Automatic annotation (TrEMBL):
Function: Calcium-independent membrane-associated phospholipase that catalyzes complete diacylation of phospholipids by hydrolyzing both sn-1 and sn-2 fatty acyl chains attached to the glycerol backbone (phospholipase B activity). Has dual phospholipase and lysophospholipase activities toward diacylphospholipids. Preferentially cleaves sn-2 ester bonds over sn-1 bonds. Acts as a lipase toward glycerolipid substrates. Hydrolyzes fatty acyl chains of diacylglycerols with preference for the sn-2 position and of triacylglycerols with not positional selectivity.
Name this polypeptide is given: Phospholipase B1, membrane-associated
UniProt keyword terms in alphabetical order: Cell membrane, Glycoprotein, Hydrolase, Lipid metabolism, Membrane, Repeat, Signal, Transmembrane, Transmembrane helix
Gene Ontology BP terms: phospholipid metabolic process
Native source organism of the sequence: Chironomus riparius
Endoplasmic reticulum found in the keyword field: no
Lineage: Eukaryota, Metazoa, Ecdysozoa, Arthropoda, Hexapoda
Signal peptide: 1-21
Principal subcellular localization: membrane
């Protein structure tokens, strides 16, 4: 099996225009390079702002409260002390900094959209880097490619399916309770949860009973949220819709390697073996997302001033940005044509942040190009939106 995979990678590699004779990388540092390759690399990172650039928002609004709030519905961005994340490789930051297929496999957690804290928002837009603008003492984010000791509270696992987030939640609780830098009872925590892509790509085509699939997904999410509520008071949970993996079938003018990779990475949608199930699979994905909303809206997750769950559907109908000629902008995807580059993580970050400052029933179900629309707290609306606070009015 290993030889087969290596053979496939070698064949795909031969299709790429970037070859080792033009440059090579060591620990993500380019040692030799042509201007053309340098340009291609620069395309995959966000626009970088100078150190003199001010943050997009007036930091007086949404700043840390004078006294620690007791009500989660009066929580500002500056009140968040600790961040954490549960999920799969999209939260791990898998292959975000990979330059070509010979560099895949790295877990670049420091640039992960929901939990990365490498550099600042000026270089790498992530949710923690936004929150650090409001609270420089924020704790729990991941750094760099996260060897042992720097992954923070990023408990996402590559190739994880939804059923595994229950164990992730248990490990998170244990680690956080035993961390001397965290006061579980007093500090406000923000946990971002997103999973489902691997279920869609590798799981649901092998289980033909849709009700079993949906009931298991709902059970796992409920169990995960109950664990967090039972052991981590003063916690706001972001439940983000899993990505619209169907967009991978609509990439326009993508490299030939993408189709080959997708056949192996996402067989449920791309392998001809499961072509007859395609309609059922897409219907199951739609129902899965509806079930997420049903779970998040359960009264038990909205009956406390110290715990709240929000759902963010911005990936529901999301498509990748297009170039002027109508082709898919592949700079948002890593060389594996599946995971995100730092630029792609910035895209997700911007969408999540905007959703956190949008009333529950008005949250976007699609993506806009990063930095085109950046919402901010205001004097009259300084809080993170919840189902019960002033945002709903």
């Amino acid at each position: 099996m290993v030889i087969k995979v290596l053979s496939i990678l070698l064949i795909i590699k031969s299709m790429e225009s970037e070859v080792d004779s033009q440059g090579f990388f060591n620990n993500h540092v380019l040692l030799f390079q042509s201007p053309r390759i340098r340009s291609r690399i620069d395309e995959k990172v966000q626009h970088k702002y100078s150190e003199r650039s001010n943050f997009f928002c007036d930091l007086r609004y949404g700043a840390r409260s004078h006294t620690v709030p007791k009500d989660i519905h009066k929580l500002t961005p500056g009140d968040i002390d600790v961040v954490a994340a549960l999920g799969d490789s999209l939260t791990v930051g898998l292959n975000a900094n990979a330059r070509n297929l010979f560099h895949i496999g790295s877990e670049d957690r420091g640039v992960s959209w929901s939990i990365g804290g490498q550099d600042t928002w000026r270089q790498i837009l992530t949710l923690p880097n936004i929150l650090k603008a409001y609270n420089p003492k924020l704790y729990g984010y991941s750094l760099n490619d996260s060897p042992k000791g720097t992954s923070g509270f990023n408990f996402a696992v590559t190739s994880s399916m939804s059923s595994q987030t229950v164990n992730q939640a248990k490990h998170l609780v244990t680690r956080m309770i035993n961390d001397r830098n965290v006061d579980v009872q007093k500090q406000w925590k923000l946990i971002t949860y997103m999973t489902g892509a691997n279920d869609f790509c590798s799981g649901i085509c092998r289980q033909h009973d849709t009700n079993v699939i949906l009931n298991n997904a709902a059970r796992d999410l409920i169990t995960t949220l109950r664990i967090l509520k039972a052991y981590l008071p003063r916690t706001l949970v972001n439940v983000v819709f899993p990505p619209n993996v169907n967009i991978l079938t609509k990439l326009k003018n993508a490299p030939l390697k993408c189709g080959i990779i997708h056949t192996f990475a996402c067989p449920c949608l791309f392998n001809p073996t499961y072509a007859s199930q395609r309609e059922r699979i897409l219907r199951t994905i739609k129902l899965w997302k509806e079930r997420i909303v049903e779970v998040v809206q359960l009264p038990e997750f909205h009956d406390s001033e110290e715990f709240e769950v929000n759902v963010h559907p911005f990936l529901d109908k999301a498509d990748l940005p297009r170039l002027q000629n109508g082709n898919t902008d592949m700079s948002y995807l890593s060389p594996d044509c599946f995971h995100f580059t730092p630029k792609g993580h910035a895209l997700l970050t911007n969408a999540l942040w905007n959703s956190m400052l949008t009333p529950e029933n008005h949250r976007s179900r699609s993506l806009r190009k990063e930095f085109e629309d950046f919402k901010c707290p205001t004097a009259s609306l300084p809080y993170l939106a919840t189902s019960k606070n002033i945002w709903q009015n």
